[in-house]
Write a structure and sequence with these properties.
By secondary structure, the protein is mainly β. 7% of the residues lie in helices and 50% in strands. It has a 6-stranded mixed β-sheet with strand order 1-5-6-7-8-9, covered by helices on one side. A 3-stranded antiparallel β-sheet has the order 2-3-4, with no helix packed on it.
Length: 96
C-alpha cells in the first residue's frame, strides 16, 4: 500500500499547527479552540503538523480522528527527508 506524503504547503493549507492546539494530559487527545470566545474545545479531525520554531521546517505530521492519532504519523528528518512512518488506531501504535 503506497502512502501519498504531503508537502509542507499542503499541510498548512489543510491542517492544524500543533502549537495552536490543546492537549489533554491524561488521554493525549488534541483539541482545537472554537466559538466566538474561543472557549469551546472540539476534538481534532484531520491533519496536524509540527514546524521547527527556529527555521520553520516541517518536523512531522499525523492524521487525527476524534482527537486521537488515527492513521499515519510521519517523522521528517533534518534535510526534509522522511524518517519513520508509523500507523495508529485511536491513539495506539499498530505493529507493522
Amino acid at each position: 500500500m503506497d502512502i501519498q506524503l504531503l508537502t509542507k504547503e499542503e499541510l498548512i493549507e489543510r491542517g492544524y499547527d500543533l502549537d495552536d492546539l490543546e492537549r489533554d494530559p491524561e488521554s493525549g487527545r488534541l483539541f482545537v479552540r472554537t466559538g466566538e470566545e474561543a472557549d469551546l474545545l472540539v476534538p481534532v479531525e484531520g491533519l496536524v503538523y509540527e514546524l521547527d520554531e527556529l527555521d520553520g521546517n516541517l518536523l512531522g505530521y499525523g492524521e487525527y480522528a476524534d482527537g486521537f492519532l488515527h492513521g499515519i504519523l510521519v517523522d521528517v528528518q533534518p534535510g526534509r527527508q522522511v524518517g519513520r512512518i508509523r500507523r495508529y488506531f485511536r491513539g495506539e501504535e499498530q505493529a507493522d
